[in-house]
Amino acid sequence: MTSSHRITRLAALALGLWLCAPVALACPNCTTARTVRAAVWDDTFWNMLCLLVLPLVVIAAISSALYAWGDPTGRARAVEKETP
Amino acid sequence: MTTLHTTRPGPLLAATCLLGAGLGGFFDGILLHQILQWHNMLSSKVPPTDLVSMKYNMVWDGLFHAATWCMTMGGLFLLFRAGKLPGVPWSMPLFCGGLALGWGLFNSVEGVIDHQLLGLHHVHPGDGQLAWDLGFIASGLLLIAAGIAAIRSAVRRTAEDRERHMPQRVYPAGG
User: What is the pLDDT of residues B53-109, one digit of tens each?
Assistant: First the structure.
C-alpha cells in the first residue's frame, strides 16, 4: 500500500469517526438524562425498589432457612462415633 | 465418651442457593433484558417506546442487576465460610444441586411475584405472553426438582460414606 492510499484510508476513518461520534456520545447531564433522573427519583422510587427486591428477599429468607435447618430433603444424618 | 459427628449440608446449600439465584438473575438480565430485549424491569408499567422511557427502564434494569450482584456476593461469602466449617460435605453434586435449586427459586419466585402478582413485566409481551410466563415458572420448578434430586443423592451418598468409614460402636459388657 502506498503512503497516499494509507493517508486516504486514515482520513476516511477519521471522517467516519467524526460523523459517528455525536451519535455514540453519552449525555449524563443533557435534557433527556435530567428528565429520566427526575422520573426515576420521584415519590414512587422507594416503593418500586421494594417491589424490585421482593423476590430476592424471599429467596434470601429461604436460603437462611436452609442454613439453619440443613438440607430440604431431611436426609442429613448424625453419625455417632465412640472415642476413647 | 461419645462424639457427635454431623453431616451438615446447610451452610453449603445456603451459599449455593444464593449463588444460583444471583447467577439466574444475571442470566435473565443479560439474555432477556439486554441481548434479546424481550422485556425490561418495568416494561409493563412504562413501555420502552421512546428514548426517555428506554433510559428509565435501563436505570431499573441496573438496579435489578445491582440487587442480583449483592445476592451473588452474599453467596460467595457464605461459600467461603462454609469451606471453613466442620462437617460440611464438600461434594460436586451438592454444589450443582444447590445452584440449580437457587436458579429455580429465582425463576419461580420472580415469575410469580413480578410477572403474575405485580405485573411489572412479562417474559415475552404480546400474543401468548401468559404461556411464556407460565413456561418461565415451569422452568424454575423443573430446576428446583432437579436440584432437590441432586441434593438428596449427594446427602445420602455422603452419609453412607461416613457410616462406612466410622468404626463400629462397642458397648461395654453388662452395661
Answer: 999 999 999 999 999 999 999 999 999 999 998 888 889 999 999 999 999 999 999
Residues of A in contact with B5 (CB under 8 A): 78-81
Q: Which distant-in-sequence residues (6+ apart) come within 8 Å of B103 by Cβ?
A: B20, B21, B23, B24, B27, B140, B143, B147
This prediction has a pTM of: 0.80
How far from each other are the two terminal CA atoms of chain B, in whole angstroms? 14
Kindly calculate the radius of gyration of chain A based on its CA atoms and give it in whole angstroms. 30
A30 Cβ contact partners less than 8 Å away, ≥ 6 residues apart: none
Q: Does A71 touch chain B (CB under 8 A)?
A: yes
Q: Are the C-beta atoms of B106 and B140 separated by less than 8 Å?
A: yes
Contacts of A48 in chain B (CB under 8 A): 42, 60
Identify the CA nearest to B152 among candidates B80, B67, B91.
B91
Cβ neighbors of B72 (< 8 A, separation 6 or more) are: B18, B19, B22, B23, B26
- Closest chain B C-alpha to A30 CA, distance in angstroms: 12
Q: Where in B103-148 does DSSP place strands (E)?
A: none
